[in-house]
Design brief:
Blueprint: H1 2-26, H2 32-50, H3 52-77
Helix pairs in contact: 1-2
Length: 78
């Protein structure tokens, strides 16, 4: 489930990496390494902010199941 939240972020980062690679080949005299790191961080955080509702939706299901299993375990022990 959590992979479904990570896939959009990872795919955008990979697309950004490809785009930066093409720009580096087109303009070799500019240092895109420093720009690329900050650009990837910015884009990754932006995508995380945009997909936070999906993360909350999936994490609610995970926590509900976790508490249900925990209740079953505690009922068995006590």
């Amino acid at each position: 489930m959590i992979v479904q939240v990570a896939i959009p972020v990872m795919s955008v980062i990979i697309i950004t990496e490809f785009a930066l690679g093409i720009i580096m080949k087109a303009v070799p005299h500019m240092n895109f390494f420093v720009i690329g790191i900050s650009l990837k961080i910015f884009i990754g955080l932006l995508i995380l902010i945009l997909f936070i509702s999906a993360f909350i939706f999936y994490s609610n299901g995970i926590f509900d199941r976790m508490f249900a299993h925990l209740a079953k375990i505690l009922n068995g022990v006590w």
